[in-house]
Amino acid sequence: MSTNTPSNLNIFWGCTIPYRLPFIEVAIRKVFDKLEIKIEDIAYSCCPDPGGIQSFDFLTWTTLAARNLTLAEEKNSNIVSACNGCFETLKIANYHLRRDKKLATQVNKILEPQTGRKWQGTIEVTHIMEYLINEIGLENLKKRIVKPLKGLKVTTHVGCHFTKPENIMQTDDPGFPLKLITILEDVLGIEVMPYFGETSCCGAGTRPIEKDIALDMAHNKLKEMDTQNPDGLVIICPTCFNSFDGQQKLVNRKSGRKQEIPVFHLFELIGLALGIPIEELAIDTHLIKHDIEKIKTLVNGAEVIEVSH
Fold first, then answer.
1. Residue of 151, 67, 74 lying closest to 110 (CA atoms)
2. CATH 1.20.1050.140 domain extents, the chain
3. φ/ψ of residue 228, rounded to 5
4. CA-CA distance, 173 to 184, in Å (whole number)?
5. DSSP H helix total and E strand total for the chain
6. Nearest alpha carbon to residue 85 among 180, 19, 12
7. What's the fold here for domain 9-128?
């Protein structure tokens, strides 16, 4: 099987990050640059979306995913997905292709004449947070932290596609996920505040057909977080980011809610803790505004840790 090394980290960005949330890509690139890990860019297409095409044409959905998998196979490089949805699509497609020879044959009969490619099943698909944990190692990451974010209080939202379906994804406990919390608390020094409904959906999958229900789902989570009065909400999924940052003003308009909770992507916080200036991370471009001065004060007041390479 292929592997990822510091010289060939192969990130699948998806559509949402580069087209709607480019500051997430900025944060991820800057963090890996700080960690001296080179990213190899591959010209992938849409994953495609895990809930759309799959629902009514599984073969087409799998074939499109398989084409992306062959691009990574060509480079002998595992895929590290920066998007929960893309992660689910590519991992599930790879899973079924390996177990269903008939499906693999059908897919390759479509792929080979059209693209000259053939799915072989030689690479793995992982999530970018798993890469931090399993490839870099949290102890190694912690050694690179120069400004622990002690004093910051946050809530978390892992997202549905990272853990479900559990038998295939095998990333964390869907009912009680702890990996994101572990990074925030043990590596970055952040206080994570529990709230009712932590594993509930953000509502994004419902938005195209029932926008009001989607807003209500996001509101149900936000009102529970309000009781903790956090400095921010930490996510690892770009679609969930949009639900809580891009849609939060709509949630408030519909529900009458007054409070606003700004949203962090995990890698923005890692970047701050690694000593990357907040201005370079473009956190001020989020729609729900952070208290930038408070974050600067917290970061600048942090006890600086000397890092030895």
1. 67
2. 9-128
3. -95, -10
4. 17
5. 16, 8
6. 12
7. Glutathione S-transferase Yfyf (Class Pi); Chain A, domain 2 (1.20.1050)
Q: What is the pLDDT along the chain (309 residues), one digit of tens a residue?
A: 455 654 469 999 999 999 999 999 999 999 999 999 999 999 999 999 988 788 889 999 999 999 999 999 999 999 999 999 999 999 999 999 999 999 999 999 999 999 999 999 999 999 999 999 999 999 999 999 999 999 999 999 999 999 999 999 999 999 999 999 999 999 999 999 999 999 999 999 999 899 999 999 999 999 999 999 999 999 999 999 999 999 999 999 999 999 999 999 999 999 999 999 999 999 999 999 999 998 988 888 766 566 655
- Location of each CATH 3.40.50.11810 domain in the chain: 137-300
Token pair for 84: 């929960």
The CATH class given to the 137-300 domain equals alpha beta
